[in-house]
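Intended use. Records like the one below are meant for learning the mapping from a protein sequence to its folded structure. Do not use them to infer anything beyond what is encoded.
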Amino acid sequence: VMQLMLKAQAHSKGDPDVLEVLGVLYNVSRDYDNAVKTFKDALARRPDDYSLWNKIGATLANSARSDAAMPSYHRALELRPKYARGYLNLGIAHANLNNYAEAARCYLTALQLNTNAHHIWSYLRIAFTCLDRFDLASLTDKRDVSLFEGEFTLPKFT
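Structure written out for the chain above:
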């Protein structure tokens, strides 16, 4: 598949869709530097593509560069403020950096935006456990974001 995409890239004249697929292939192959470069090439053609910004962030985070991923996640969320996946990824990056309170805020925001993302509750429980906030960790079983409003200021979306 990689060889086919490299051929497609050679003939595509920098088509951002081809670059995006190639970047994903580099990422899953753990060739993170080429993935970041390829996503940046795609962004040069589509600078306001929130998904590409998120993919750069995820690639950096996957390569143990969560701190470097933060600006990319923030840009994705500037472009699409109601992007639940972006908040989840930002939360994971914060957790990787031991910023568990900020990770929890991001997870709660993602849950506020996507109430069907049940897997995020386990991330939230882990963050609270790392904070030694077992009182909050036990509340995650209720799966109700409003129970955490006294602890976290979450964005209001209209």
